[in-house]
Design goal:
globular, EC 2.8.2.8, membrane, alpha/beta, transmembrane, Rossmann fold, single chain, signal-anchor
């Protein structure tokens, strides 16, 4: 314990005995309790330890901070705080003072924001300077363009439009960049990890790949002799080219020769100021004649030199390496433009190649890579040079005062539109209006509204929403239609066209995830035929955005331009102007134009006021595209764009419904009356005639398991994922699983036996139910085929009645269609391994449970116990006391307190058929031999310890019992 035992002169240093202190010294302040009178500021107390009587003149232990000490018997405890000598002493902070300070800061922030953004203050602080497009190049100066090369030749007819990519590992960065670029441009490809063996390269008399790409060129150069000769032979025979990348190395290499080629490399250089060889035949998409000024990304560039006429530079750059790092290079080499991309015309060994001295970080390399694919594949992998552009301006008339368009902003919009029209034929800004907010700005902004309406014919128009409300918030379709009608009436009153057939929902609400009321209301009020969204299937990654058609409305993918509602001032743009210019000049926005044949861009009214960032952005990127590409930009109305899009990509017409709860953005724009707890946790997927109905009955007995509501058309089976019901949408499907108070504790499931062999079903199921578990039942495929035939006979199918089983299963492809259809339904589902492998492409084996149908028939209690454990359902249900064997039926039935004491399946189940004839069985045994062999291996791979007896029998010569 420390005590005050003497009064000392006013001293604030504990080491004051020597009248000197260092920066490490501490100051002391004593805070007295409130009930005591504060001492004079001149008072300072020296402290003396009671232990040994030593003075506490030098305090180095910061542990003394905020420690309480007793000071004598008559004096209450004092609070002693120790501070650094150079630290200023503040008054003691209290909770009230902190709250008051935070409150004052909050008020100041709000006041500052209001002043900064609100009229009339905002008009006072608006800067006269705004970013103006500064893109300059020879084309913009009137220089004629060189025509783009046409790479098509007869050689393309011998190869498929597909790329083979060799990577070092499946996780390598450059390999991933290559794959993503190919996906963005919808180019088919196959990735192979470079190893001792090659994939199959030919199919009959045609090459399977048009171009071979090596992520690391050395993997090609250092191939073993057998594989190298095999690959080179393929390239020569089918005129297939090779693209190789030189990856960075730890050590510098100066003048190192590439193995087996008269080509030399210099590695680990910094470069700047890239330019292209205008005479190169490779250039098609890319346009030469300009210089990409500034440093190139990275410090590990490889450059090439050659002493053979087969090599021709495709791209150059200037050395930017520090002088001390270039001691090994001669002065002439340092000053000469260095080749960063080299073309091999094939004069050395009859194989054409393109070598890149770096990866795809540099935007120009991405263009050259696409051109190299086109050139080396003889036009088989050429991309169209036409790009359609539509710029939507959402939220017209919507916005807070100070963020809306003024008269001078509208005049600037018209001027920029004229400039863009000179570069993009048919271009008009597409204005999406919400009529409720017309004339809701300042007087100056209201004049801007008026000027827009005075120039209606100079723009194209589409309806947003009357009050800019999100459609998914309307559960009542009538109310939604009323809002749309108000906007339509506003348009008619002011002469705005109403026949575009195009609309966009605020925040893309209701488009995807689908809000059915929106689609019906759009059709009824506006006769909408086209819309667009950035949300299908997800916002990111942008390369995977797609279109779909629902309820007769074509949904196009919408692109972002880096500008959002609140990006209205350049000095507040995330990353500043440098970041925006990076996107424009070769970055994300530039590449969006390059990779997408049809571009619908989202922007907002606020982007065209204030600093007019949208005008700057679109004019700049279009000019940059003209400088560096041979793309032909044009525009068209939304309906024409939609028709072109689905002509290009007809496979996208069918939607794939995803799970809204897997994407936070989707969950925010999904009806609040829906929950993913409604969706089934597991599916019984079939196949037909294996015992799925019996399993369904047993599952429905469990108190914690609930099935779907019966369909009036397909009874207990919804048959959603494999037929036309899928186009009815997710809401239709979820209506079969009503919300209850105990929804979260219930295990919803559905059984549709037709799911098992549906080609599209695994993809569709996984998109909506990625965590669901799958249950399938397998019996002898021969018995299953015969059972289906007998099932069709019992339903009086004319084909089954008029043809014997043997005639059906042996029908040729020239047989009548009805006979072929019955043959296929008998035979195809029994190719078990083929269908299981398709499911395993989407689901891990841990989510798949395979039931032996024979065991289910003979011992269902054992099967149900195993299934409950697989599903992790608690508590376990004791089936042994709830299902019993019924000798009359010949199978197990539910125990019920009915007249006969049991609840059995209907008369259509458990029918006794005539035994299958031996000739048919022998045919089916041969037919399924290869399929069953693969199935046996698959079951072993999946961890099935016991091979089903029926599978052993089918793989032997045993006749059916």
């Amino acid at each position: 314990m420390l005590q005050v035992n003497e009064l000392r002169p006013p001293v604030c240093k504990l080491c004051c005995s020597q009248n000197s202190c260092s920066d490490r010294d501490f100051l002391i302040k004593i805070f007295w309790p409130k009930e005591n009178t504060l001492p004079n500021t001149s008072d300072c107390y020296g402290l003396q330890s009671t232990q040994g009587g030593e003075r506490v003149d030098d305090v180095e232990d910061e542990g003394m901070l905020d420690r309480e000490y007793l000071v004598g018997r008559q004096v209450p405890p004092l609070k002693v705080c120790v501070f650094r000598r150079h630290t200023r002493v503040f008054k003691q902070l209290t909770v009230k003072r902190c709250v008051a300070a935070l409150f004052a800061l909050s008020v100041f922030s709000i006041f500052y924001s209001l002043i900064y953004l609100s009229y009339p203050f905002s008009s006072l602080i608006r800067r006269e300077w705004r970013p103006e497009p500064s893109i300059r190049c020879q084309v913009m100066s009137g220089l004629n363009r060189l025509p783009a090369h046409d790479h098509r030749s007869a050689a393309r007819l011998r190869i498929d439009p597909k790329v083979l990519v060799f990577v070092e590992t499946t996780y390598s960065r450059l390999g991933r960049d290559i794959a993503e670029l190919l996906v963005y441009n919808r180019i088919k490809y196959k990735v192979e990890v470079a190893s001792k063996s090659l994939p199959i390269l030919t199919n009959l008399d045609k090459g399977k790949y048009g171009v071979i790409v090596f992520e690391n060129l050395h993997k090609y150069l250092q191939m073993d002799k057998w594989n190298r000769e095999l690959l080179d032979k393929y390239c020569r025979e089918y005129s297939v080219g090779i693209i190789g990348f030189l990856l960075s190395a730890d050590e510098k290499q100066v003048g190192s020769q590439l193995r087996g080629l008269p080509l030399y490399i210099h590695r680990n250089l910094k470069l700047r100021d890239a330019a292209l060889n205008a005479g190169s035949p490779i250039l098609r998409l890319t346009r030469a004649g300009e210089t990409a000024w500034g440093p190139l990304p990275g410090e590990d560039w490889t450059v090439f030199t050659a002493n053979h006429s087969t090599y021709e530079p495709l791209a150059w750059a200037i050395n930017d390496t520090r002088q001390e790092d270039t001691n090994l290079l001669d002065e002439e080499f340092i000053k000469t433009p260095l080749t960063t991309v080299m073309q091999d015309h094939g004069g050395f060994d009859s194989i054409q190649r393109v070598f890149f001295g770096s990866g795809l970080r540099f935007w120009l390399h991405r263009l050259l890579f696409l051109d190299s694919l086109s050139y080396l594949s003889h036009g088989q992998l050429s991309l169209s040079l036409t790009r359609y552009v539509l710029v939507d301006i959402d939220d017209i008339f919507v916005g807070e005062k100070g963020t809306r368009l003024r008269r001078e902003d509208v005049l600037a919009l018209l001027r920029t539109q004229e400039k863009i029209q000179s570069m993009v034929p048919g271009f008009k800004f597409n204005l999406g209006f919400s009529g409720k907010y017309f004339h809701h700005g300042t007087s100056d902004e209201n004049l801007g509204d008026d000027l827009l309406l005075e120039n209606i014919e100079k723009f194209t128009w589409f309806s947003h929403m009357w009050n800019h409300q999100q459609p998914h918030l309307y559960e009542n379709q009538t109310q939604l239609e009323l809002e749309m009608t108000l906007n339509r009436n506003f348009a008619k009153e002011h002469g705005i066209p109403t026949d575009s057939g195009y609309s966009v929902a605020p925040h893309h609400s209701g488009v995807y995830p689908v809000h059915e009321a929106l689609y019906f209301a759009w059709k009824h009020v506006w006769n909408i035929k086209v819309t667009s969204t950035e949300e299908y299937p997800h916002l990111r990654p942008a390369r995977l955005r797609r279109g779909f058609i629902h309820r007769g409305i074509m949904v196009l993918p919408r692109q972002t331009c880096g500008l959002f509602t609140h990006t209205i001032l350049i000095n507040r743009y995330p990353g500043g102007r440098e970041k925006l210019d990076e996107s424009i000049q070769g970055g994300e926005l530039f590449q969006t134009f390059v990779y997408n044949p049809i571009n619908i861009f989202m922007s907002h009214m606020s982007n065209y006021g204030n600093d007019r960032l949208a005008l700057y952005t679109f004019e700049s990127v279009i000019k940059f595209l003209r400088c560096w590409t041979n793309l032909k930009l044009t525009s068209a109305p939304p309906l024409a764009l939609a028709e072109k899009y689905f002509n290009m990509y007809p496979e996208e017409a069918d939607p794939v419904w995803g799970n809204p709860c897997q994407d936070p953005r989707h969950k925010k724009i999904w009806s609040h009356n829906k929950t993913c707890d409604q969706l089934p946790k597991f599916l019984v997927i079939g196949p037909q005639k294996t015992g799925t109905t019996a399993l369904y009955t047993f599952l429905a007995m469990h108190p914690n398991i609930s099935s779907n509501i019966h369909s009036p058309e397909t009874f207990e089976e919804i048959q959603f994922f494999n037929g036309r019901n899928y186009y009815r949408g997710l809401s239709w499907y979820m209506d079969f699983f009503p919300i209850t108070k105990n929804t979260t504790s219930q295990y919803f499931f559905e059984k549709s036996a037709t799911y098992f062999d549906g080609e599209l079903v695994p993809k569709r199921v996984h998109a909506l139910l990625p965590q669901a578990k799958l249950v399938t039942i397998l019996i002898s495929p021969a018995k299953r085929a015969y059972s289906w035939y007998q099932h069709m006979r019992s339903h009086m199918d004319p084909v089954a009645l008029n043809y014997s089983f043997y005639d059906v299963i042996t029908a040729s492809d020239t047989a009548p269609k009805a006979l072929r259809d019955l043959r296929n339904r008998c035979l195809n589902p029994g190719r078990y391994a083929q269908h299981l492998e398709r499911w395993l492409l989407y689901y891990p084996q841990q989510q798949l449970h395979i039931i032996n149908g024979e065991t289910l028939r003979l011992n269902p209690v054992e099967i149900m116990d195993q299934l409950q454990k697989f599903l992790k359902i608690v508590p376990l249900y004791d089936y042994s006391s709830h299902i019993k064997y019924n000798p009359k039926k010949g199978f197990f039935c539910q125990v019920k307190s009915t007249q006969d004491g049991s609840g059995c399946l209907g008369r259509s189940k458990g029918r006794i058929y005539p035994q299958m004839d031996n000739r048919s069985y022998k045919f089916l045994q041969r037919y399924y031999l290869s399929h069953n062999t693969v199935l046996a291996k698959l079951l072993k791979r999946l961890g099935q310890r016991v091979v089903p007896q029926w599978l052993k029998d089918d793989l032997s010569d045993t006749l059916p019992a």
